[in-house]
Amino acid sequence: MSSQGSLRKDGRTFNQLRGMVCDRGLLHRADGSAKWSQDGTSVLVGVYGPKNMPPKREDPEKAVLEVLWKPKSGIQGPEEREAEIILRRTLEAVVLAPLFPRAGISVVVQVIHDDGSLLSCAINAACAALVDAGIPMTGLLASVTIALAKRDDGAGGGAHLQLDPTREEQDGAQATVCLALETTPKAATSNGSVEGEAVVTSTTRGAMAIEEYLEALDRCRMASRTINAFARLSLDKAQRRLELPGT
Amino acid sequence: MDSQLEAEAFKRIYPEEYFQRFLSEGTRPDGRPLGRARSTTIGFGAVSTADGSALVKIGSTTLLAGIKLEVMTPTAEAPDAGKIAATFEMPPLCSPDARPERRLEETSVVVQQVMNAIESAGLVNTKELLISTGKAAWVAYLDIYCLDADGSLLDAALLAAVAAFADLTLPPVRVNPEGHVLPVLSGAQGGNLRENGDASSEVVTVERRKLTLGAMPWAATIGLYKGHLIVDPTAEEEALLESTVTTILDEAGRLISLFKPGGITAVTTALIQDCVELTRHRARELKQILEESSQEDEDEGDESQ
Amino acid sequence: MLQPEGPAPSLDEAAAKLAEAQAILQSSTASLPLVCLGDAIDLGADAEGGVMKGHGTMMAGEAQLQATVCGLVERVNKLVSVRALKGRYTAQVGDVVVGRVTEVAQKRWKMDVNGKQDAALLLASVNLPGGVQRRRTNVDELNMRELYQENDLISAEVQQINQGDGAVALHTRSAKYGKLQGGQLVTVAPYLIKRLKQHFVALAAPLDVGIILGCNGYVWIGSKDLVDAGGRDEDEGMEAAGPSGQVDLQLRERMCRVANAVRALAALGLPVHPPAIVEVCNLSGLLRVEIKDMLGPEFLAQVAYREADRRQAEGDAQPMDH
Asked: Which of A84, B269, C62, C92 counts the most CB atoms within 10 A of its CB?
């Protein structure tokens, strides 16, 4: 990889995530809420449920998850509708819906500011909000975006993979990959090697070589561990804030 | 007759077990091996009133794509390019789940992914849609209709869109001094253009022309079910699948998209590589089908003239 | 300490004091067996005997128990479960709840009880007016709205819980249950209300109000007569408890003070039970805090300090064993 020493516009190395902040319990009327920020990108998610669902939409075997995605300004467009569907299917992978038959869980996403990696930020925020609401899940998800910068001419070639891109980096990239990963690596396989974390959701833009995608996947795996560690720390702090009645 | 009824009843009551019985033999209810896609056909020029159109069938899944060209003023940011606007509709006739008042979620996902694939692959160079810099350009309204939804809608929709663009012919036009775009009349009158007193008109094109298409994206939707990879699932199979992965490659083998929208199971690196291999195979198939259909279409066109 | 006659401290100072008080309270949680979502639960000595997995846990691989929620690990013999704190009300048979009617359906009322689904109050589970015991006829069904209408507040008891989907059935087959009016409802998180012997409490003078601590987090503050034995006439059965007309100013002020005391406890995350409520009210009286200032950071800080001191004293008296 060339130009490993050069820094990005905001001073980060290509393998560096932005600073993350997670606040929980911001919305008092929601069962759970979380605001996840990755520097300039910030998303607030409110979770309502499990709650009553009108008979027309209830599922007798499990809870019905619905996602509402509100853009920063303007009304919902086709991108927001697609994002709702992707987020809903992503959360369905971890929420233990069969525990609440005939109930409904509403996840409302409000984009506060978009400076790149928006879907990743929303997935992280939604997971944090679901945990805040006390909804049982099979595990946490960690989502991260990678941008493949256009090849530099004359700098020895080799697009480098920029982790957690800003809006500018994302728009100017040759391709971007957004992944949501499980946070528990699979058990060791038969030949003794340990498989990395599995991919729950993948969406890409732009064209890239397959090898570049697989390398991006490995980088995302490493980054997801950092994100998961941060999420756990924030969870632990939030837990202790809730006073426990004398045991 | 009895055993036929029994089989139907079993399928209704225990759809998962029914499906698994086939899988354990390495096949599927319609007899296909797990890695084979359904038979695919492409019909060009299905809609005579459209500037470009194609009807695609993958098994029972039937999609129709049509392109209508209209004139627009190019934007200030891109004064020398046109644009493409896509819609995807699932009218109630295509599926028992589709109703006029409730949009199925596939509609939002498919149209976004088709546009993403076209842009990422660079299929269409929007600069070719230019008529006159800063004054006029074509906007290609790509409308895709699902006539029969039997699984793998994204594959068929993308194929139909690609074929429609291959079929698209830009009509010859001229721009008059007021900046209006007018059609060029064909035949004898076309040649007399200058003598008609329109000497000041800027003749943009004289002949009909096709777009020079860039890399073509080919999609393969693969379903995951208990560790099996199931290529090109039907609607019945899709209802049972744990999750699906749609891989889109171009003929050079570049990855145009790897779309896995959540789902109950997650994929490992090994499974991703398997999906890519299966898609490579399918891309070759589709490319061949397109070329053959295109050749047939040309031959027919030559014959009718 | 807050000086009743001195200049009021600035908002920042008050907020800082509150944060400090809360930190003291939180430090007592350090030793509790809290677990995060996804953590493996230590099976401990029970591992050989096998464990039964309870709520909030799932098997992850061989003999590995994983938490599916964040909360406190509870072990009862072989049963290991994780109790999440936040979350909707989970009913148990016999709980006293306060609910609001959302819908009048066929032969039942649908009630909002802050649970995962709306609870059902069957027509067969209420006392008919006049205390009559008979089969419910079609006429009764048509007159359901005479008894309870949409948005009525009702105290009831959980009769049964459907095994299959957790649907809750309520009943008001006792004189003390029924429609509530002429009072105030305060909503708190369900985990703050512990199950007590008596959920209908009459607070003694000078407070002189009656409260109903619904296990679902809905707390009703009303006049004392709803709590007195036979507060409703046995014969009348279905009469609403509490004054239906204008409530006099004195009673209203007392009810507001108690309501704010409940809110203050909830804001600090302290359990809401009658002694605590009375103590907070007394403290507000002692410090001459206006009712409207009871939810301000200065008063909350005082409540928190008091609680911290009390725990300290308790801790010194008997060493905590974990």
From this structure: A84
